[in-house]
Write a structure and sequence with these properties.
The protein has four helices and no strands. The chain is mainly alpha-helical. The longest helix has 24 residues, at 44-67.
């Protein structure tokens, strides 16, 4: 069960990384991110932020996969602690994506909820 949950988490992390890549490349999807404060194309500083977000999201996916013993077995002790930061992050993300003033951004609320649940399954496993 833990492996399946980790793979589900990783799948949705991949979608989020691709979305951030699209923002960084200038696709006009800014209204679906950051509370809709930057509709259309992101300005240059926000494009850089999207690149940073990509790295953070990929790192969190790696933590989940490591905790589920799918990736990087030498980092398991680190992942056993770090997984809880990921779980809390996605709990917070679920709340924020639910209450965002941007209606289009609310599409991310179910994704964050799925990742929260999958992360919790991995953390408790």
């Amino acid at each position: 069960m833990q492996t399946i949950a980790a793979l589900i988490f990783a799948f949705f992390s991949g979608i989020l990384v691709l979305f951030q890549a699209c923002l960084a490349l200038g696709l006009p999807w800014g209204s679906a991110s950051m509370g809709g404060r930057f509709p259309g194309k992101y300005p240059p500083k926000m494009r850089l932020a999207a690149l940073v977000n990509m790295a953070i999201l990929a790192f969190m996916g790696g933590i989940i996969l490591t905790r589920a013993e799918v990736l990087l077995p030498g980092m398991l002790n680190f992942a056993k602690i770090a997984v809880w930061f990921v779980v809390v992050f996605y709990l917070f993300g679920t709340v924020m994506n639910t209450i965002t003033p941007s209606k289009i951004e609310r599409i991310w609320a179910p994704v964050a909820l799925i990742q929260f649940i999958a992360g919790l399954v991995v953390a408790l496993g």
